[in-house]
Each structure stands twice: as C-alpha cells, then as structure tokens.
Amino acid sequence: TFNGTWKIDRSENYEKFMEQMGINLVKRKLAAHDNLKITIEQNGDKFHVKESSNFRTLDIDFNLGVTFEYSLADGTELSGSWAIEGDTMKGVFTRKDNGKQLITTRIVQGDELIQSYNYEGVDAKRIFKRG
Ligand code: MYR
Predict the structure, then answer these.
(1) Is the beta carbon of 18 within 6 A of some atom in ligand 1?
(2) What's the CA-to-centroid distance between 72 and ligand 1, angstroms?
(3) What is the domain-level CATH number for residue 19?
(4) ipTM score for this prediction
(5) pLDDT tens digit string along 73-86?
C-alpha cells in the first residue's frame, strides 16, 4: 500500500533531470534540498495527496485514470493521470507549455517509496522513507 507519510531521504540524478526540465541553477540548488514530504491516502480509485516542501504545501485529489492538472513548484503546468499497473503507480503527464511528456512511477519497496521520473530521455529517482 502507498498509504502513509513519506519523507524524502535521497535522490538519484535529480539534478540532471531538473536541468533537462529547463530549471535554472539557483532553483535546482534549492530543489535539491526541498525537504519534500508527501502523505498518500488511497481509497479504491480515489487518492488524496498532501505535499509539503520548503516551497509550498498543497492538497491534490485525483482518481485513477482521470486527467487532472498539477503545477510544479516553479509554476510549470502539467496535465495527466495516474494508473496502477501491478504494484506500481504510473503517471503520464504532459507539460502544457511545450507538449512534452513527463513519466513518473511510484513503488513501495521494503520501507521505502521509490518515485522515478523520466523526461526527454533523462531518468531520475527520489527515494522516501516512512516518517
Ligand atoms: C501526486 O500524486 O503527488 C500529484 C501529482 C504528481 C504529478 C507528477 C509529478 C511530477 C513531478 C516532477 C517533479 C520535477 C521537478 C523538476
């Protein structure tokens, strides 16, 4: 289950990923230490995600398979949806400004939640621990 509160522990290749996303150096440096925390509450197809970081706190509601809008901390707007494939959540999102796809997955492995990101050929991971 994805339910619970997850605190960022470490990231892999996130700097390169953000660079590919076009995020400037100053913002990348800040984002590398964003203290991201997410709380996931799943009820069947319905999800409620609370996100908090040094940048903001927000509440996101979505249903599996239903398109919704989400803005990154720098204001970049995405539109897309999450699905569940086996024990993996898979999100396919499109940037509104350039039409390019951002693919993300979440999987719980042991006591960690691993979120992967792909954008324009660059992969990254952010790994969270229960907290
Ligand atoms: C959620 O389930 O947490 C809400 C929806 C998340 C949408 C996709 C997240 C992509 C985040 C990419 C961050 C990259 C920053 C450069």
Answers:
(1) yes
(2) 7
(3) 2.40.128.20
(4) 0.93
(5) 999 999 999 999 99
